Amino acid sequence: MKFDENDRKSLIESLPNSQPQIQSTPQRQSDDDPHYQQTESFVAAANIENGLRQNPALSYRRYTKELEKFARAQAKQLQILEKIRKQEDKERNKELLGQQPSPKYRFQTWIKMYILTRLRDDWIFLAVLGITMALFSFIMDEGIQMCLHAQLWLYRDLTSHIALQYLAWVSVPICLILFAIGFVHYVGPQSAGSGIPEMRTILRGATLKDYLSLNTLIAKMVGLTAVLGSGMPLGKEGPFVHIASIVAELLSKLATPFHGIYENKSRNSEMLAAACAVGLGACFSAPIGGVLFSIEVTTTYFAVRNYWRGFFACVVGATVVRLQAVWFQDADTVRSLYPTYITTEFPYDPQELFIFVIVGVLCGLLAAFFVWVHRQYVLFMRANKLMGKLLSKNRFIYPAIITLIISSITFPLGGGQFMSGEIDSPQQLTQLFSNFTWTSKDLNMAQMDIVSNWSSDYSSIFINLICFTLFHFFFSIIGSTMALPHGMFIPALKIGGGFGRLIGESLALWLPQGFSFPTLAPIIPGGYAIVGAAAFSGAVTRSICVAVVVFEITGQIAYLVPVMIAVLVSNAVASLLQPSMYDSVTKLKNLPYLPDLLPSNSCIYNIFVEDFMVRDVKYIWQGITYQKLKEVLKANKTLRCLPLVDNPHDMILLGSVHRHDLINLIQEHIGRDRRLQVAQQWQQEVDEQRAREQAKDYQGSANNERRPSRFEVVAATDLLHLRQIANDEMLPPNRRAEALINTLSPRKSILLNRNSTDEQTDPEGGDNEAANISKRVQLPGDRVVDMSAEMQEKWERDEMLKTVNLDKSQINIDPAPFQLVERTSMLKAHSLFFMMGINHAYVTNIGRLVGVVSLKELRNVIEKANVNNVAVQNPREELPEEKALLSPSHTAVDLTITTIDSSITQIDLGSSYESANVGAGLNIASQSSYSQTNANENKKSSDV
């Protein structure tokens, strides 16, 4: 604060001469009051002046204190004023810029900046992935056990009447299944099914919409928990592979929200392959078998550099899963999932190896029959009109009927007593792998309890094992047709375990002392159950490393040689008869895949890319007009990328452009934002011209009618305008633009009762064209200046005839799309598509675009080659004349911004790539959920 001379003199003259200094008021105000601080400053200055005037000989110390007091008061006043100014600035910024960041938002920003960025490191990313999957596995297992215990508790508590027990036993599974059906359908329809066939498709380069989204993750976890908690004869290994892949995708996006792992296709494949291994490792606590199984089932070509990623993540996940069992489930120590205790020094005789070979052959035949029955039942469900009507009317009827039948069969007082229906799947597998003979007479109490679950008053253990095997063989197939998350690995283990236990118990009954009588090495039925489980599950999945998975989940390696022999034999037998379960499901769902080439077929070496490529390529070129670009997009709705050439004559390939970027380019060129901007610019020019004319007329009238004045009168609105400009300068650029538009827009008087939309006319009636240009739309708190319908149509027609400048546009152009030459062999193309994970490649001849090859053409020619039915074209024949890409009729351009907005919204940018000349796009039609999803997707496609 400045203390000038006039204030000082007036203050000193008002003081009495007899008073040496002015004292402050008795009632002291608050030190934070700026008026009080100002008064203190005046008082201190007055005391100094008064003392110097009355007694110049006063001591120097006295007036030094007064000076110090005055300086302190001034400093404190400045501090208070600074606080007030900061508070006012904060309130003004809050009013202008919106809500200030909350502490929660600042904490989230700190988390993203200092913690989530660490996920870019592979070690930390894989460790977090393994720990997350272990936590998910523990939570889901706890939920499954709670549902199973609730069903068993209701059954055992209602012992007064059998009907009430049956009602309690059946009602819980039906409620859980109906809940799962509704939840999966409305939250994530893509979560239905196993997950491994779809992951194989994704790892091979195809794109499945919303398959790795958060909604699918939630639906998969909740649906799988409800399905397994209901006691359905299904598994969880396939859904866990899917869940781990979704978690890996979401973690990569969370770690790097703008340029993440998911944007790099090569890195994406590596992380998804590691996630598949983590899913199996967390499901079975089998890190080695999980890695090998994921490699063997989900991929065809696997990079060795990814080994450490899969093993590291699997070890972390399996370790955390086993430690959780110790911490929260009262486990004694870290042990296998289904422990066995075969402690004999001679687990099997050499003569038993022949029996194990027979077990492998029988399991291979049963596995092939299992896959065939599954495919035939699915085809029957699709072809049956009655089932189609039933599923179309209500999606809850079929699952309710299936659940009622299965629950009724497993009722403990009914059919459940013949198939151990009162115990859950982990207990069933553990008891099947037990190392004692169930037909033995010398059994302790624990062993008798186990045998009581597999026998009844009306049947022996052999009848129960047969019923158990047949029930899971057929009803696991029937249950898998429900549109719910499920797996087939655990049912295969149970079927193979029951079949192997049946053979082992039969041999133990026929040969109680074993094959070698002098050595007294009895037959162990539990070993046959382990061999049967490995052989049948390996034949169903067509995987050799299932043997390693069985070793890890049982903790038993004594039967290493028999298990490997049986698995190899069963795989050989099943491969001659039927494809694997995952290949069969892939074909049933019509997922984009590449079949394997038969090495015995010699014609595959004489087929080249030019024999089956598509020659009529849809493309764009430098200098294309927006109208022609729009017609190309409209005529090829299934293409995700379009090749870019220099001109239609030379056809030199320059790159490829994504469809989404081209649609955004058209939207930016004639979209609503640009249209409003142009309309606002036109309106501003009209207003400025009108203002100049009015100012000129006013100046002329003022010069004629008024005399010169000595005073200049400034309107109050000008002061308000200057203040508004000062406030607008403090706004950010986007808010400043909005404020500028609102400032330039003419204001509507509150005294006039007009409609919310009206045309502005010239008050003087001199500009009719300006009256038709502008149409104002009054919204609450906002004013929009838009074009009329006629002006909009004319403006869009003129804009669409302009050429596209791709060099100056900000769209992403891939300068190096995957290319092949005409003489590339089919064998090499097959290997490249497999290893690179691509879904299409352009065919060039000395840089000139001559064709395109997609996954569908390659798949068709491979299928024909495998059956020796390939019609090879003559490569020397002349190419057909180039057809005009666009129709010559460009008379009228019926295009409005409403059409463009709706088309941009409705176009499915996430659909998988399929060439328009080849046929339709991806068709996933395995079950009702997939069929309904495709129906909705087809409805969404519309004209641009």
Automatic annotation (TrEMBL):
Compositional bias ranges of the Polar residues kind: 15-28
Q: Where is the composition biased (Basic and acidic residues)?
A: 1-11, 687-696
Taxonomy-wise, where does this protein's organism fall, top ranks first? Eukaryota, Metazoa, Ecdysozoa, Arthropoda, Hexapoda
Localization terms from the record: Membrane
Q: Where is the CBS domain?
A: 613-674
The name this protein goes by in its record: Chloride channel protein
Return the SUPFAM superfamilies for the record: CBS-domain pair, Clc chloride channel
Q: Name one GO cellular component term.
A: chloride channel complex
**Topology in the lipid bilayer:** Multi-pass membrane protein
